[in-house]
């Protein structure tokens, strides 16, 4: 068994060395102790990160399925969906799809070998949901903050808003997929990631601008505009109480903060990889673990968002039940009071 493990690690180490054009000649002479130690450390780091993410991935998958089942049950009961519920359902489907794409990282540190064309197709569909989750937050902002009436009227049709976001996501995904260069060698065997390792630096720059920078700056600007111009905040300042103003919007703020932190780490590592690789300052033994870690951080953000959405649905469901019970408790008292008033008027 030990010999099989050593042979397996040596095979993986040779794969790392074959991927590294600059150091491949050194490996033909044999593996030195320092290289083997670094390789084993990288393998252990990736394995531990995968184990930790498996907890988040399982919880996110369960929460996503629970949300879908609850929405299907409400639909069968002919309950009316609000626009906010439909947008959250769209976000749930997108985050759940991203978690399914994380299955490519569950097998790490093993390699996922496929053709360059197949990897580009995988990256294309992954980036559709990646962009969708970013820009759907802007739509949610316009639904929960009511200080821009013109935009709210434009987004009055919920399904049109979702289709518009999906169209933008597909367009940007086509753009960055065309930058991967998979069409030059479509049948070449590659170690596939959701962000192809063979993609040039322009890929990471364009993805950073359209997938992170634009949505983040847009939401930040809208929040600042809300804080300055909103009547709700002005009234709260008069009463020295701003908690009520933000109470119905906490779910949006939580989703935005979680997505921002996770995707900030993801994009920083993405830019760092291509920058260092362009200057040949980083070896494959060093950046391949970073590739897996950044993807797991981004996928963990989707898992946390699904957990918060599930909690939001549960709290609102309990609030509706409590309101219904309070209404049933108060109704007899109203009827008794009405009868007493009528008898008093007759006397």
H/E element sequence: HHHHHEHHHEHHHHH
- Which CATH architecture is right? Up-down Bundle
Q: Can you summarize the main beta sheet?
A: 2 strands, antiparallel
How many beta-strand segments? Answer: 2
The class by helix and strand makeup works out as: mainly alpha
Lateral strand order in the biggest sheet: 1-2
Output the CATH class name.
Mainly Alpha
| Net shape | globular
Q: Do you know the CATH topology?
A: Rhopdopsin 7-helix transmembrane proteins
Question: How is the secondary structure organized here?
Answer:
Blueprint: H1 2-19, H2 24-28, H3 33-76, H4 83-101, H5 103-106, E1 113-115, H6 116-144, H7 149-154, H8 158-177, E2 189-191, H9 201-229, H10 231-239, H11 243-246, H12 250-278, H13 284-346
Antiparallel strand pairs: 1-2
Helix pairs in contact: 3-4, 3-13, 4-6, 4-13, 6-8, 6-9, 6-12, 9-12, 12-13
Subcellular location: Membrane
Transmembrane segments: 50-72, 84-104, 124-145, 157-179, 205-228, 249-271, 291-312
InterPro entries: GPCR_Rhodpsn (IPR000276), GPCR_Rhodpsn_7TM (IPR017452)
């Amino acid at each position: 068994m030990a010999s099989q493990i050593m042979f397996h690690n040596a095979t993986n180490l040779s794969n790392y060395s074959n991927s590294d054009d600059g150091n491949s000649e050194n490996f033909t002479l044999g593996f030195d102790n320092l290289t083997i130690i670094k390789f084993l450390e990288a393998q252990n780091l990736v394995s531990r990160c995968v184990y930790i993410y498996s907890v988040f991935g399982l919880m996110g998958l369960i929460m996503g399925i629970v949300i879908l089942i609850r929405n299907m049950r409400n639909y069968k009961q002919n309950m009316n969906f609000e626009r906010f519920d439909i947008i959250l359902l769209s976000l749930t489907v997108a985050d759940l799809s991203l978690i399914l794409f994380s299955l490519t990282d569950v097998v790490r540190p093993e390699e996922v070998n496929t053709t360059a064309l197949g990897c580009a197709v995988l990256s294309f569909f992954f980036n559709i949901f990646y962009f969708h989750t970013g820009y759907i937050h802007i739509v949610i902002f316009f639904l929960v903050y009511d200080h821009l009436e013109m935009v709210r009227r434009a987004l009055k049709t919920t399904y049109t808003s979702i289709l518009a976001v999906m169209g933008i996501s597909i367009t940007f995904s086509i753009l960055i997929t065309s930058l991967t260069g998979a069409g030059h060698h479509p049948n070449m065997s590659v170690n596939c990631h959701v962000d192809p390792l063979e993609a040039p630096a322009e890929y990471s720059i364009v993805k950073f601008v359209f997938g992170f920078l634009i949505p983040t700056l847009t939401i930040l600007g809208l929040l600042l505009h809300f804080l300055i111009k909103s009547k709700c905040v002005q009234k709260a300042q008069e009463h020295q109480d701003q908690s009520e103003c933000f109470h119905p919007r906490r779910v949006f703020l939580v989703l935005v903060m979680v997505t921002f932190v996770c995707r900030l780490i993801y994009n920083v590592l993405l830019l760092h990889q291509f920058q260092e690789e362009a200057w040949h300052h980083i070896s494959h033994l060093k950046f391949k673990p970073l590739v897996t870690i950044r993807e797991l951080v981004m996928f963990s953000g989707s898992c946390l968002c699904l957990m918060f959405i599930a909690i939001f649905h549960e709290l609102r469901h309990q609030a509706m039940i409590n309101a219904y019970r309070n209404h049933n408790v108060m109704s007899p008292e109203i009827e008794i009071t009405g009868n007493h008033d009528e008898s008093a008027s007759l006397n």
